[in-house]
Structure formats: C-alpha cells, structure tokens
Design brief:
- The protein is mostly helical.
- It has a single domain (about 5-115, about 135-275), classed as ABC transporter involved in vitamin B12 uptake, BtuC.
- It contains 11 helices and 2 strands; from the N terminus they run ααααββααααααα.
- It has helices at about 5-35, 40-60, 60-85, 90-115, 135-160, 160-170, 175-180, 185-210, 215-230, 235-255, 260-275; strands at about 125-130, 135.
- Strands 1-2 form a two-stranded antiparallel ribbon.
- β1 (about 125-130) and β2 (about 135) form a beta hairpin.
- The longest helix has about 30 residues, at about 5-35.
- It is globular and about 65 Å long.
C-alpha cells in the first residue's frame, strides 16, 4: 500500500471507531451506571438525527441542529425515566419489555410525522486531499467529538457533586440514602444524560448515514456489543471495546466486504466474552 492510501485508510478506521464510541457511550452510561437495559437506545439516536434534520430545514444551520439535538433528547429521556423507567428499577426483563415497546411507538410516531423515506443532510466541512486520495474533514470532526464526549462524561461523573451522588446511589444505595442523597433525582439525571449522549450521536451520524425512522437499528447491535465487551467501566471499557472491535471490523471490511466486517466484529466479541466473561474492564468496579 502507498503511504497516502495508508493514511486515508487509517483516518477512515479511526473515524469509524469514533462513531462506535459515540453511539455506545450513552448506552454505556445508562447500563453501566444504572443497570438498565434500554432497548429504545437506537430510537433515542433516531430522535437526535430527526432533531438536527428538522432544525436544519427550519433555520438553515446544521450546527444549530446539532446543538439542539442533545437538549431535545435529554428532555425525552426525563419523560421516559419519570413515566416508565423509575417504576422498573431492579426488574431487568420488565425494563427490556417496556423499552422495546417504547422503541416501536417512537419509530411509528416518527414515521407518521416525517414519512418512511430516507432523508439526507449535506456533510459539512468539505474534503481535503491526501496524495491521490480525498478524505473528509468531517471524519476528523467525529474523532474530536468522540474525545470531547468522553472527556465531558469523565468530568461530569468524576468532578461534580452530582457525579459523586450518582455513583454513590448506584454502587452503595443504602449508604447514599443514609447520607441524604436523592437517588430518584440522581437516576433521572443520569438517564437524561445518557439520552443526551444518544441524541448527540444521532445528530453527529445523520450527515453521513441519511435519516430514516429505522436508523437506530443500524447501530444498536454494535452499541450493545461494545458495551458488553467493554465491561463495567463506562469510559475505559467503552473506549477499549470500540477500538478493538472497530479495528477488526474495518480491516475485514477493507480487505473483504462490509458484510464480512460485521461478521468479524461479532466473532471477535464472542471470542472476547468467552475468554473474559465480564468484559475487558471486568476487573474494575462498576461505574465510570
């Protein structure tokens, strides 16, 4: 391979790993911190994509749409947690059933409002040349955003009073309650934060995938595999799993076909879980 081809392939691979981090991070927060299996995570991503689509069409600014998406989906997350999830903590099967039903409702609702057809957004920032090849500046943007989202999540849960209370409410609930921590409020904020991350993911991937009511289905399986393979540590596990799975998927996709690349991702995930049943960060305590 020529040096310019290697650079373009490396950039594409890193951007795809960044996408995997972005779509899995919100799910990792909700599952890793709260032990809630949210089968409607893909639909929260979808709501973020449709928010940026609607705001862009209304204002002409895709950046305004990307800023609005996490806010809108966070508010949806608050409503979901208050109306559904808070009654089901500790009941994993009931939570899975409820969020699966919610995902069906959201898909049908968006289909009625926007129609079933795929709708596109122009990819911003343009391209640059690498030798005889062309690469997108938006790929760099996705890499930077993945790093910023990881840093923001770390700061929220490690450097704020809320983060301390949220970790205490999930890891030592009896002690946290004795110290006056409002567990219900912490759970609501944590779920809303995870939803905001999902909305951000939808907004960021919308320009490169197209917006359709079933957009979440394209990412939810890989997001769950990333979270499970990553293990209990939200940031370390998600980053390590996304990097490892992303490298294998992209290498096989480049050398063979994208279909075989997805098969390689699944095979590597199964192999890792056979060797490390608790994931890559299984030796660490649950949490950030």
């Amino acid at each position: 391979m020529r040096p310019d081809e290697i650079l373009v392939v490396a950039l594409g691979m890193t951007a795809n790993i960044a996408v995997l981090v972005i779509v899995a991070l919100g799910l990792s927060v909700i599952f890793g911190m709260m032990r809630v299996i949210n089968l409607a995570h893909g639909e929260l991503i979808m709501l973020g994509a449709y928010t940026v689509l609607a705001v862009t069409r209304a204002t002409g600014s895709i950046w305004l749409g990307m800023a609005a998406a996490p806010v809108v989906v966070a508010l949806v997350g608050v409503a979901v947690e208050r109306l559904i999830i808070r009654f089901l903590y500790g009941r994993i099967l009931d939570t899975m059933l409820a969020t699966w039903g919610l995902s069906l409702v959201l898909v049908q609702g968006v289909t009625i409002l926007f129609g079933p057809a795929t709708q596109g957004l122009a990819t911003p920032l343009g391209n640059f040349s690498v030798g005889t090849y062309s690469a997108s500046w938006y790929g760099f943007f996705l890499i930077v955003m993945a790093a910023l989202l990881l840093a923001a999540t770390y700061l929220v849960f490690k450097r704020t009073r809320y983060g301390l209370e949220a970790r205490a409410a999930t890891q030592l609930p009896e002690m946290a309650a004795a110290l006056g921590v409002d567990a219900a409020r912490s759970h609501m904020i944590t779920f809303a934060f995870g939803a905001a991350l999902a909305g951000t993911a939808g907004a960021l991937i919308a320009p490169v995938t197209g917006v359709v009511p079933t957009i979440g289905l394209a990412f939810i399986a890989r997001a769950f595999m990333t979270v499970i393979v990553g293990g209990p540590a939200v940031l370390l596990g998600t980053t390590a799993a996304a990097s490892l799975l992303g490298v294998f998927e992209n290498l096989v996709s480049y050398l063979a076909t994208p279909f075989l690349g997805q098969g390689a991702l699944l095979a590597v995930a199964i192999l890792i879980l056979r060797v490390l049943p608790t994931g890559l960060s299984g030796g660490r305590q649950r949490g950030v």
